[in-house]
Amino acid sequence: METVKAFFIQGLKSVGRQLVQLSSKPATEWLMLFVCLLPFVLISVFNHPTDDDFLDAVLARQQGFWKSMGFYYQHWTGRYTSSFLYGLVYKSATLDSWLLALRLAPVILLISLTGAGYFAIGGLGLPISASMKWRFALYGVLLYLCGIPLVASALYWFNGAAVYTSGLILGLLLAGLIGRCIHATSSADRVIWGILAAINGALLVGTNELMIVVTLIVVTVWLLGTTGPKKHWPLVVLIAASIGAIITVAAPGNFARADTVLRTMPLWYQIGRTGAKSIYLTISHIADWGSNGLLLSATVLFVWWVRPRYPSAYTGKWLRGAAVGGMVMVIMAMPTLWITNDVPARVWNVVYLLFLLCWFAGVLAAISRRPLPASWRVTGRNGRRLRVLWLVLIVLGYNNAVHSAYIDVAFKAQRYNRAQDQRYALLQQLQRMGRHDVEVQALLPHEYQYPGTIFLHELELFPNDIANEGMAAYFGLDSVRIKSLPARIRRHMRE
C-alpha cells in the first residue's frame, strides 16, 4: 500500500514538473491565447440577423447599394462609412448568402481589430519585437471582449458592429498612422503616412458620432504638440476629418432622428442635462471597470512583463495621453445622449476600449517614473508561466465572456440555430400559402437557453417593433408577432 501511495505521489510530482516546464514555453502562451479567442470564431457559424438587420436588408434589396446609402443620409443617419458597410453585407441576393456574410463578418472584425491593435502599437515607436506586439494586441482584444457590456453588439449584430466596431478599428489604424508620421525619418515617408492618415480620418468620422469627438480632439492635440515643418500634416488630417464630420453631422437624417427628443425640452436644459448625465454615467462606469479583478490582475502581469529598470523619457507623453483620453471619455456619451436620450451598451463598448488605452497609458507613466524595485521583478520565464495561468483561469472562470462563449458553443448555439432555421422555413411557407399576419412561437422556451454571446433579443408581442417589421418585410408578410415571450426564469446551477 505504501509503495502504491509513493508511486502515485511521485507521478503527480512528475506531471506537475512537466506542466510547469510546459507553461514556460512561448508556444504554450500562444496556444492559450488562441484557445481564449477561439469560441468567438466558432460561434460565428451560428450567427443570425437580429434587431434592425432585416429592415436594412430590405432597404438594400429594394433601392440598391448607392441609393440605400442616399436614403440613410436623407432619412436616418449621416454615417457614410457605416452605410457603405451596410450595403456590402445587406445587399445579398438570397437568405443563405446573407447568412454566410453575417457569419464571416464577426471573424473579419475580430481579425481586423487584432491587426489594427498591432498596427497602433507599432506606431508608438518603441523598441519591441513583432512577437511582443502581436501578443500585446491579442491580450488587448481579449481584455476588451471580457470587459465590454455586450459582446453580441460588438461582433455579431452587424448593424451595431458596422457602426461602432468599425470605428474602433479605424481609430486604432489612425493612431498607428499618426505615430508613424511623427516618427518618420524621411519626408517621403511622412508624406505617405500623412496622406493615409487624412484618408483614414475622413473615413473614421463617417462611422459614428463618438468617433467624430475622438478624432477631432486627438488630431487637434497632435497639431498643438507639433512644431516646425511637420506641423502641416496634422493640419491636413484635421481638415479632412473636419470636412467628413460636417458631412456626417449635417445629414438631414440626423435631424429627423433627433427631432422628437430635442423638441420636448429647451436647448439650455438639454445641454445641461446631457452634460451632467454623461459625466455621471462615465464616472460610474470607470469606477466599475477599474475595480474589475480580471483587469487588475492583468495590470500586475503587464507591469511584470514590461519590467522597467530606469526612468523613461516617455513618462510625460503617457500622462498626457491618459489625461486627454480621460477627458474624451467623459464627453463621448454626449452625442448619443443628445440624439436619443440614451446610452446603449454598444456605446459603452467603444468607451471601454478608450478606457483600456488610458488605463495602460497611466500604468506605463507610473512605472516609467518610478522603476520597479529589484524584489518585484520576475524572470521572463516565470512571467510567462503566470500569464499562462491567467489565461487558463479565464477559460475556466464562470463569469467572463470567454467561458460564456464556450458554454454557448457547446450547449446553446446549435439548438438556437435550428430554431432560427425552422422559423425562416415557416415564414416562407406561410407566405406561399397567402398568410399575411403571422404569429410565431418563441425560438426557445426559456430566456437562459439563448446564446447570449450572439443573441440580442427576441421578436416582440406587438408587430410594430423594428425587429418585427423588418422580418415581416423581408419575408413578404404584412406583420409578424410572437405569441408569448420566453420565460424569464434563472435555472439553478445544479440543474
Automatic annotation (TrEMBL):
<feature type="transmembrane region" description="Helical">
    <location>
        <begin position="191"/>
        <end position="223"/>
    </location>
</feature>
<feature type="transmembrane region" description="Helical">
    <location>
        <begin position="318"/>
        <end position="338"/>
    </location>
</feature>
<keyword id="KW-1133">Transmembrane helix</keyword>
<dbReference type="Pfam" id="PF19528">
    <property type="entry name" value="DUF6056"/>
</dbReference>
<feature type="transmembrane region" description="Helical">
    <location>
        <begin position="235"/>
        <end position="255"/>
    </location>
</feature>
<keyword id="KW-0472">Membrane</keyword>
<feature type="transmembrane region" description="Helical">
    <location>
        <begin position="136"/>
        <end position="155"/>
    </location>
</feature>
<keyword id="KW-0812">Transmembrane</keyword>
<feature type="transmembrane region" description="Helical">
    <location>
        <begin position="98"/>
        <end position="124"/>
    </location>
</feature>
<dbReference type="InterPro" id="IPR045691">
    <property type="entry name" value="DUF6056"/>
</dbReference>
<feature type="transmembrane region" description="Helical">
    <location>
        <begin position="161"/>
        <end position="179"/>
    </location>
</feature>
<protein>
    <recommendedName>
        <fullName>4-amino-4-deoxy-L-arabinose transferase</fullName>
    </recommendedName>
</protein>
<feature type="transmembrane region" description="Helical">
    <location>
        <begin position="388"/>
        <end position="407"/>
    </location>
</feature>
<feature type="transmembrane region" description="Helical">
    <location>
        <begin position="350"/>
        <end position="367"/>
    </location>
</feature>
<feature type="transmembrane region" description="Helical">
    <location>
        <begin position="27"/>
        <end position="46"/>
    </location>
</feature>
